[in-house]
Specification:
Strand 8, helix 6 (199-205) and strand 9 form a beta-alpha-beta unit. It is globular, with a radius of gyration of 19 Å. The chain has 225 residues and is α/β, with parallel strands linked by helices. The model has no long low-confidence stretch (mean pLDDT 86). It has helices at residues 62-74, 109-117, 126-140, 146-155, 171-183, 199-205, 214-224, and strands spanning 3-8, 13-19, 24-32, 39-44, 52-56, 89-92, 160-164, 189-193, 209-211.
Length: 225
Amino acid sequence: MKVLVINAGSSSLKYQLMDPATREVFAKGLCERIGIDGKFTYKPQVEGKQVLDAVDVAMPTHSEAIQAVLNALVDKDNGVIGSMQEIDAVGHRVVHGGEAFAGSVLITDEVMKALEDCIPLAPLHNPANITGINACTAVMGKDVPQAKILESAKEHHAEFIALSALMTTTMQRMREIVAAAKEEGITAKIIIGGAVITQEYADEIGADGYSKDAADAVKLAKSLM
């Protein structure tokens, strides 16, 4: 699995393409002076690929910065992936989630509204983080379809699929994925969790297990193997 990790600032954007399971990093870098005289740094972690250090790239907004990152990642000579389709997900660093968020969550319209409500808690950082999310949405599209999760599970012969929801509005996606996985004959065990999830809900939708946190999920996964 390949995840593009984004940390957006008011005039900068740090990025890293990595596999969260193995911690392997494929490329990382920095977009600086967005909206001024854009400087782009690209450091592929693959032998034989060329480092680009603070080269001039026009980046009037964060959208152009994201596009510059994607162009570098898929470049036919110097890229580290063949196409954008190899990027399974995008992860964004957000400084403050208030009481609404205690961990990672799938971005929805409701989540974006909650992040905007938290701007007074981090007035310098949250607006930039939200700008980064919106820029990725503009360039890459709004959603990774449920089919992508199941495709990745089949492609990598996954033994487990872990799903998390921190808001009731995203819980229904879990039910849909569990049902689709069974329909397609995927044998991976599905573990769900998150602030709004309970064992009763896991039983209701036919998930293989519920965990209250990451440590508990590891124990549960071992017991299901």
